[in-house]
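Let's inspect one such protein example.
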Amino acid sequence: MIDETFHLTALDVRRYDFGRSLRGYDPERVEQFRTQVAEELERLSRLTQELESKARNFHEQLRAFRDRDKALNEALISAQQLRADLREQAERESQIILREAQMEAERNMEFARQELGRMEEQIGALDRTRRTFIAQMRVMVERQLAELAAQESMPTPIARSGHAGDAGAEG
C-alpha cells in the first residue's frame, strides 16, 4: 500500500544529508546511489504523470462515450416515440379518410337513389303521356273512322245532282 502522507521526490533524495560519521558509508557510493535513486524517481514520476494523463484521457473518452451512448439511447427512444406517434397519427388520419370516404359514398348513393327516383318518375310521366297520347289518337282515329263510316253510308252527292239536273234541265 502507498502511504499518501509521505511523498519522496527526486529533489528530496538529492538534497538529503546522511550526516558524517567515522565508520559510515563510502560518500562516493552513497552519492552515486542517491543519483540513481533520484533518476529512477524522476523516471517513475514522469511515468506516473504519463499514466495519470492517459488515465485522465481515458476517463474523458469514457465520459464522452457514455455521453454519446446516452445521447444515442435518447435519440433511439425519441425515434421510437416519433415512429409510434407517426403510426398513431397515420392511423387517425386513415380513419378520418375512411370515414370521409364512407360519408361521400353514402352521399353518392343517396344522390343516385334520388336520381333513380326522379328518372322513374319521369319514365312514369312519359308512360302516362304516351298512354294519354295513344288514347287520344284512338279517340281521334275512332272519330275519323266513324266519320268515314258515316260518309260511306251517305248517298253520293253525284247521283242526286244527276236526278236533280235532269229535272232542272227539263224545266
In short: The radius of gyration is 65 Å.
